[in-house]
Amino acid sequence: MPATFKSLSELLEKVEATKKRLKIIDQTANYLKTLGAEEIESATNMMVGRAFPKYSQKTLDVSWSTLTRIFERISVFDWDLFREAMASTGDIGSATKTVLEQTKPKKQTQLTQKSLTITEVRTTMEAIAQAQGSGARTKKERLITALMSQATPVEAKYLVKIFTGEMRTGLHEGLMEQAVAQAFDVPLQRVQHASMVLGDIGEVAATIKTQGLEGLEKAGFSVFRPVKLMLAQTAQSVNEALAEHGGKSALEYKYDGARVQIHKQNGRIEIFSRRLTDVTESLPEIVKIVEQNILAQSIIVEGEVISLDSAGYPIAFQHLMRRFRRVHGISGMAEKIPLTLYLFDILYLNGESLIAQPYIQRRQILSQIAGEIPLTKPNSHRPAQTSRRFPQRSHRRWTRRLDGEKTRQPIRAWTQGQTLAKNQNNP
Predict the structure, then answer these.
(1) Which of 74, 160, 215, 221 is the most exposed place for a label (fewest CB within 10 A)?
(2) pLDDT, tens digit, for every residue of 44-61?
(3) Is residue 406 scored above 70 in pLDDT?
(4) 82 closest CA partner among 153, 29, 140
């Protein structure tokens, strides 16, 4: 029997009501066990506030003003009560639920009306995302009206949260990874690795549900499906970062730019931002640089895009972001804000994942395939040498572990191999 959206909403009500991390994991794991193969990916993503998989470029583009028109259309919506509820809860979904619980619908709901299923909600959201061009607004509103008309107050609460991107129940992606591991009795490290290479925890849950551990073992990169970025951990001092690494370290300048992930296959190139958004059209000169220099048939690399002023200094980050958001008049903007690309890591080359390779080997491979694209310049130091020299530098640098086995994060795990040390003179 298909899982209802109400069951998902009721689970999230329980999650929201508890602050205990282990209880949240237990509740979520138990719920995941009840889901069918056709709905588990959708449900997993909805529970962390996403309408679609993390790598998907689909967007709902539904504003709160659109939702307000729909609520006024389907009910006698009490805005005074809504404002009171917002002041009390600070949550737009909760406030909506409070109002709908005390409001009569304009059209009498049929007693035989069937419950919304998770699959139906996903199908409707896909139709909303696909509505483009002339008449798109009318079509979207018609689809949302039909959805909200069927929803109970608690379902409407979580539909609003998904539409607005404001889930905030305490069930974040890290806890979801733990819940998936617990639900299917799979080691957490394997779930995290699969989540990285597949680009979405919902896909991981669906893979385990349909293919078991064997399917998880086969999980790998797919070019043009953006990969979760490796994020730094912070340390309060250089010595702390070096101690975490447990061996020789490489220090790189932290460029004041925008991080990008570049995918190329058979001449096609796509560029993704830190948020895994496709920004290819906004960065034509970066596409050209990659075309001219990277000759590999298929590849995934990471880099930093910066823009320098006439004196050779990076421009302010907020001005750089104007390039990433621009979709019209790009040529003129490219003259005002020219871009430079620096590469710092390679994840995949010609059908082979490189994330299990040590950092030094990945850097060597990257230098061989980068052509004339500059690489960030790491300086390798031993801990004693670095701790004396680093504090005198007025820069923040990346420190990457190169060897040794005493750190919590093993060198072979690309996702967890960085520590950011704050300069003691420039926090």
Answers:
(1) 215
(2) 999 999 999 999 999 999
(3) no
(4) 153
Domain with CATH 3.30.470.30 in the chain: 233-421
- Collapsing DSSP states into helix, strand and coil, what is residue 47? helix
Strands (E) in 110-239, as ranges, are: 233-235
Specify whether domain 5-164 bears CATH 1.10.3260.10: yes
Q: List, as one string, the DSSP characters of 337-375.
A: S--EEEEEEEEEETTEE-TTS-HHHHHHHHHHH-TT--B
N- to C-terminal Cα separation, the chain:
55
Q: Parallel, antiparallel, or unpaired for β 418-421 and 233-235?
A: parallel
| Burial track 238-271 (b if 16+ CB lie within 10 A, e otherwise) | bbebbebbbebbbbbbebebbbbbbbbbeeebbb
d(CA 51, CA 28): 18
CB atoms within 10 A of CB 145: 15
Report which residue type is found at 265. Answer: Q
116 closest CA partner among 126, 124, 108, 107: 124
The whole-number average pLDDT for the span 105-130 is 83
- Rounded to an integer, what distance in angstroms lies between the CA atom of residue 401 and that of residue 359? 8
Secondary structure of residue 260 in the 3-state scheme: strand
Q: In CATH, which of 3.40.50.300, 3.40.1360.10, 3.30.470.30, 3.30.1540.10 is domain 233-421?
A: 3.30.470.30
Q: What is the pLDDT of residues 186-216, one digit of tens each?
A: 999 999 999 989 999 999 999 999 999 999 9
Amino acid identity, position 132: Q
Whether this model's pTM surpasses 0.85 = no
Average pLDDT over residues 166-194: 95
Question: Quick one: pLDDT band at residue 243, thresholds 50, 70, 90?
Answer: confident
Order of strands across the sheet that contains 397-401: 233-235, 418-421, 397-401, 249-253, 379-381
Q: How do strand 298-306 and strand 352-353 relate by DSSP bridges?
A: unpaired
The question of whether 106 is a catalytic residue gets the answer no
Residue 396's pLDDT is what? 44
Alpha-carbon span 48 to 158, nearest angstrom: 11
CATH 1.10.3260.10 intervals, the chain:
5-164
Contact 60, 67 (CB under 8 A): no
